[in-house]
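Private note to self, pasted from the team thread so I don't lose it. Backbone tokens:
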């Protein structure tokens, strides 16, 4: 069995944003040479997530509104965590959206359903962040 590992780095420009990383992860898959196996894509920060969904702006706006209703950013003093930092809402949003995804690989292609794309979700941005891509297989 072969193994491939790469870190993807992002400089986010907003506190919250969704970045389609499907092309980046697909480039890793091609570079790995693995034809059959699994791809793990993992957020390496406790206030960011990886998820699979449709790349549609209206849906992303819906995610943003939904997450803000569940864990509003402000007022900051509503959270016990907020003292040194003001990112308790980002920790909660990450838990809701998920830490990682695993995608099956067949014939060096992702086994995606229709419209599926891989996204990096940032909830406490405006700094450098990273994602781990780990691919195993033959």
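Design output:
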């Amino acid at each position: 069995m072969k193994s491939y590992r790469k870190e993807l780095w992002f400089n986010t420009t907003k506190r919250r944003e969704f970045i389609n990383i499907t092309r980046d992860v697909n480039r890793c898959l091609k570079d790995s040479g693995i034809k059959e196996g699994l791809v793990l894509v993992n957020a390496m920060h406790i206030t960011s997530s990886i998820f699979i969904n449709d790349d549609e702006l209206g849906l992303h706006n819906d995610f943003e509104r939904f997450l803000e209703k569940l864990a509003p950013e402000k007022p900051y003093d509503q959270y016990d965590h907020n003292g040194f930092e003001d990112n308790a809402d980002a920790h909660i949003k990450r838990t809701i959206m998920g830490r990682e995804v695993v995608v099956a690989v067949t014939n060096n292609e992702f086994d995606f359903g229709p419209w599926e794309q891989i996204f990096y979700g940032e909830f406490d941005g405006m700094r450098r962040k990273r994602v781990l891509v780990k691919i195993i297989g033959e």
